[in-house]
Amino acid sequence: MVNPRQLRSLVRIVEVGPRDGLQNEAGSIDVATRVALIERLADAGLSAIEAASFVSPKWVPQMAGSAEVMRALRRKPGVSYSALTPNLQGFEAALAAGCDEAGVFGAASEAFSRKNINCSIAESIERFRPVVEAAREHGMRCRGYVSCALGCPYEGAVEPQAVARLAATLYEMGCYEISLGDTIGVGTPASTLRVFEACAAVVPVDRLAGHFHDTWGMAIANIHAVLGLGVEAFDASVGGLGGCPYSPGASGNVATEDLVYLLHGQGIETGIDLDALVDCAAYISAALGRAPQSKVARALLAQRARAEGKS
Ligand code: HMG
Ligand code: MG
User: Fold this and answer.
1) Distance CA 109, CA 95 (A)
2) How far is the centre of ligand 2, averaged over its atoms, from the C-alpha of 244 (Å)?
3) Domain count along the chain
4) With left for phi above 0 and alpha for psi between -120 and 50, is residue 241 left, alpha or beta?
């Protein structure tokens, strides 16, 4: 077990709310709201924000307008604004829109690969290769995602070795970090450790990231488990927004505020202001017409209401 104190200031949070969070909303969110959310997140201290997704608007209409979002943003120095780029067409659009980082996303399950990006795993690898190459030529980093790392909505169980194979391929191709996605949020600490250990045998552990959806309530427990392995990067979504339109029944990502509360409680610095982050959760939840869902946002907002009632 790694002593959490040794991890101080090493954990990096990738905020995926503006992409993973909003791609799954029933209605599309206007550009101004998306921009305001991203700017507020940057002001709260998030330094890596997945701001956009250059996918087909026929497949994910919620992410249409990503170029407008990128162009309208007030950029904060030191913040990296990334986007999903499934193919060269998406990469070129991300480059033109001024994204700092690209992202290719594959799956460890054949059925999910076909449903999500309309090709086999092997075909997806050949599509990703020129994207990673083009990113390198333009001095942009490219991240790799492996969906269905803990289970597939269509095939069920997924072998850890299948996850490790794709993770190794993406890493060898030039992706600087491999985000392992529990797309349907079924992992437990034991199954998560098995998958991360298999991947850590072929990709340096500090190049792995965790991307946990919280469908079965295990996301925070899974993060705590792999922190002990030395994983240093986690994806999270403000307010616990999120899901994948091609993953029926999956809920949002681990809420960023829950993750920040965990890390700060472990003595691990993140540079994120928890109060300001909860304000971001309240802002986007109000824009979506609901109350913030995460445990930490609800607890902190209730605490504030009690304090105001007393004063
Ligand atoms: P396709 O239909 O096989 O693509 O879709 P195609 O190359 O045959 O092109 C067909 C049409 O799409 C053409 O337009 C292209 O121009 C257009 P038409 O001539 O019919 O008008 N097209 C594009 N348009 C905009 N941007 C592009 C693009 N590429 C082609 N980049 C494709 C293949 C990958 C495009 C499609 O399947 C797609 O867009 N899928 C996206 C699915 C998606 O975004 N899913 C959610 C994100 S993944 C996720 O959430 C999981 C993750 O969070 C991790 C986890 O939780 O596990 C990352
Ligand atoms: Mg996801």
Assistant:
1) 29
2) 6
3) 1
4) beta
Q: Domain of 103: which CATH number?
A: 3.20.20.70
Can you tell me the distance from the alpha carbon of 290 to that of 285, in angstroms, rounded to the nearest whole number? 5
Name the residues around ion ligand 2, CB cutoff 5 A.
20
Based on the residue annotation, tell me whether 244 is a catalytic residue of this protein. Answer: yes
- Rounded-to-integer distance, Cα 280 and Cα 265, Å: 21
Using one digit for the tens of pLDDT, what is the confidence trace for 16-69? 999 999 998 988 799 999 999 999 999 999 999 999 999 999 999 999 999 999
Pick the catalytic residue from 99, 175, 199, 244: 244
Ligand 1 atom closest to Cα of 23?
46
Query: Please, which contacts does 87-91 make with residues 24 or more away whose CB atoms are closer than 8 Å?
Result: 87/127, 87/131, 88/127, 88/130, 88/131, 88/134, 89/54, 90/54, 90/55, 90/131, 91/54, 91/131, 91/134, 91/135
26's CB contacts (< 8 A; 6+ apart) are none
pTM of the shown model: 0.96
Residue 152 near residue 181, CB atoms below 8 Å: no
The C-alpha atoms of residue 262 and residue 268 are separated, in whole angstroms, by 9
By the 10 Å C-beta count (0-12 exposed, 13-18 middle, 19+ buried), 74 is classed as exposed
DSSP letters along 134-189, please?
A: HHHHTT-EEEEEEE-SS-BTTTB---HHHHHHHHHHHHHHT-S-EEEEETT----H
Please give the Cα distance from 232 to 2 (Å, whole number).
Answer: 11
